[in-house]
User: Fold these one by one.
Assistant:
Number 1:
Amino acid sequence: MKFPSADDDTGSRLFDHLIELRSRLLRAVAGLLLLFVALLPFANRLYSILAQPLLDKLPKGGQLIATEVASPFFAPLKLAFFVAVVVAMPWLLYQLWAFVAPGLYKRERKLALPLLGSALVLFYTGCAFAYFVVLPAVFTFLNKVTPQGVTMMTDIAAYLDFVLIIFLAFGASFELPVALVILVLLGWVTPKQLSESRGYAVVGIFVLAAVITPPDVVSQMLLALPMVLLYEAGIIASRAVRPATKPDVSLE
């Protein structure tokens, strides 16, 4: 009689995990594609909404142009897919959570859910801040510095790429508090070290803002200042979730 070996048991568990991973990936992709298809009829409307911050700042009669034949088709399509990814993010993260949660300890599950929720809220907040505050300010600045006799006529594909970069930059940058909390939970840094390194962090934030934003002072300041505040929020949050440590006891 042959008894199952430990290797057989390990291989069976690995196979089960792969099956579960494939199932979660298929569900995530199916949900994303379903939402993308549902947004396709509204692709042009979505682009009109996205273009509004620029159109509001252009001189009277100003408009976007298409320098490539296929741009009027592909630009709204690309935007619809981006919106589908952003809107479907809770569903995608849920599939990820459902896959990894069974392998986590109770404390890890207790901390992971608030971190995922906070990451979502902060990303959406960063994108909203970029749309309602940053883009109008940037286009106002660019319109004012445009030389006399020059008419701003932006290509729709170039405009879309510009705005998506802004959204991703602000959405990712607003994740700073979550990143700091994770670093503290991993034990790589302490809240005290974060507080003591505040000066270096502020300099690094302004350098980062200068690198990932367009070459204008307005967008750099509008990214750097919120990140400084978010850094302080990350320090406060990391102090709240830092695992308690037992005091050292010396034996005499």
Note: Confidence is low (pLDDT under 50) at residues 244-252.
Number 2:
Amino acid sequence: YVQGRGSLRQELHRCLRTNRAIRHPQRPTGARRGRIPGMVNISQRPAEVADRAVPGHWEGDLILGSTASASAIGTLVERSTRFVMLLHLPDDHTALSVQNAIVDKMSELPERLRRSLTWDQGSEMANHAAIAAAADLDIYFCDPHSPWQRGTNENTNGLLRQYFPKSTDLSLWGPGYLDNVATELNGRPRKTLDWKTPAEALNELLSKPPTVASTP
């Protein structure tokens, strides 16, 4: 908490996880993404998603590789348990590639863990209607320039950059390695989970019978 001076100040930011002295904007000032047809805004998301009381609600995003490689890794984080799944996108991150990757990964989950997905307004989600139908989940979109609306996912992406530095070719890492990284993160105790790991929190949910609404 002491302000550094001289050479000490130069060394301090190198000790940070991001290695950055200041935050840099993701896009040039004034740059805007086009509106995705048919998208449902986050303001229409049910209250149960916000309070994390009900499992099965996910946040998603991409971490991008070097421009030359056009590679990316998709990140999916379950809001109540912080459980992470990674999507292998070695060649591109077009709408079709992202659609196929999300549907394939979500199909590994039981139905009660596929309730909703919240994403930003990136063009990679142009096929959101097809994803929602195939994966049987609702999809909501954040407001522009509002990364805090996916705070769990943003934090996870920061952790993942320790494994996948910016401006590198992410296609070098196969799906097996991505699964190993996800397993390592899911095995890390979290204070917000009372020091349980995301994997332990998810296993607890899966061990409980699904909640069935009672009838009078």
Note: Confidence is low (pLDDT under 50) at residues 24-33.
